[in-house]
Amino acid sequence: MKTLTVSIISIFFYSLVPVVCQGNWMAGTARIMITPETPLVMSGYASRTKPFFSVKQDIWAKTLILEDETGKRVAIITTDLVGIYSDISPAIYAGIEERTGIQRQDVLLTWSHTHSGPRLTLKDKPSSDATEADTQNSVAYTKALQEQLVHLVEVASRSLQPVDLSWGSGVASFVMNRRQRTPRGVRLAPNPSGHVDRSLPCLKVTTTDGKIMAALFQVACHNTTLTQNNYALCGDYSGFAQAHVEKRYPGANAMFMIGCAGNANPYPRGTMEIAEQHGREVAREVSRLLEGELTPVTGPLPTVLDVAHLSLQPQKSIPELEDIVKNGPSWLKGNARTMIEVLKNGETLPITYDAAVSVWQFGTDLTLIGLSGEVVSGYVLATQSAIGHQKLWIAAYSHDYFGYLPTAQILRDGGYETRGLFNGMGWFDEQAEEDMIETVTRLANEAGRKFE
């Protein structure tokens, strides 16, 4: 195991190379180690309340800046973190715009959802499961991270060079539906017949002398090979995958995003060895794609960003909520307690939740959709049905980490993914699925996607 001697300020980036442009894209990339210098409480499992004991693998933040033929720039940021909350990200977006000119709608901020990374918070008041010292350490780390992500984009923006873009899609076989039906309802367990998205999209960024600058790839699977018993800092399978790709292609930045993985777990899972195994599988598939025949990606790159007004369930009375606390499933009790407190204080509960959604249209070659929250795989089918199956990349776990976004069917069936907003202020209504798909369809149209 590594000792805690690493720094969060080491940064790597491409230097300018004077070459003749063969395509219509310019790009720059950078990465920064974000391994905490001080052990922090980990995020992802509520039962785990102590700081990590060791560092199995350093964690990273990385960015890819793309500039199309019109001079428009966008930034994709990937991080080995469980999620970035909506009270943390505004300072990042504001700093990026101020120091690079890249606007909010042109930033896709994502996270790998590793459950073996540090907890982020700006709240000075300790939660019930953390000491005051642990909380202050987490706040200091989070504030430093905000600045590091802004600086990361700033550095990459100064290192643009001509590139070619291409993309394709492979398969990740270890993705397993985790919603098992039982006589007592849906429980978290492997369900081989349940729907998941096993696609593995990959974007290749190649300099004009043929070198791979960056590989951006995605798996629609919870980054939870490691369970609540793990106290070693680690990127889980996605961290190992990125490391393997970068070892195979020296100088390249391997960047991981996660798709509609809300109802999917790795299978098997539970040990570091299995996490490394899944990482090797992803890296092999990414390498196969990078060395095969991919589809060229052209510009221009129009982008749109808006919010989907996702419907929440009608307000329940205090007695109804108290009954849920007493007799309801465990995953609904926390929100019920929060809502009781709000109502007893004479306040009102929201009727919708505004979730950020972005659509980036790469010429006529690729539509990249960025969804907020822990989106379940059914949204892949619903989106494909609405705007077409081809030339489509659906990313989730970006923009805003607010909780699970279940489909109407999952809400009817029940289970852990129906637990509602992380802030405790509501549960999604079945109408939320239609709200999201209508927003995605409208934005895809605005961005210029050609529907099938």
Structure, explained:
The protein is an alpha+beta fold and 452 residues long. The chain contains 9 helices and 22 strands. Strands 1, 2, 4, 5, 6, 7, 11, 12, 14 and 16 form a 10-stranded mixed β-sheet that branches. The protein is globular and about 65 Å long. It starts with 10 loop residues before the first strand and ends in a 5-residue tail after the last helix.
What's the pLDDT, averaged over the residues? 94
Which term fits the overall shape?
globular
Ends distance = 51 Å
**Largest sheet, described in full?**
10 strands, mixed
Q: Report the sheet-strand fraction.
A: 25-35%
Structural class of the secondary structure composition?
alpha+beta
The helical percent reads 25-40%
Can you tell me the residue ranges where pLDDT is under 50 for at least 5 consecutive residues? 1-22
Rg from alpha-carbon coordinates: 21 Å
Write the layout of secondary structure elements.
Layout: E1 11-13, E2 25-33, E3 54-55, E4 60-67, E5 73-79, H1 89-100, E6 107-109, H2 132-157, E7 161-171, E8 175-177, E9 179-182, E10 185-188, E11 199-207, E12 212-219, E13 232-233, H3 236-248, E14 253-258, E15 264-266, H4 272-290, E16 295-297, E17 303-311, H5 318-327, H6 330-344, E18 352-362, E19 366-371, E20 374-375, H7 378-387, E21 392-395, E22 404-405, H8 408-413, H9 431-447
Parallel strand pairs: 3-13, 5-6, 12-14, 19-21, 20-22
Antiparallel strand pairs: 1-2, 2-4, 2-7, 4-5, 7-11, 7-16, 8-15, 9-10, 11-12, 17-18, 18-19
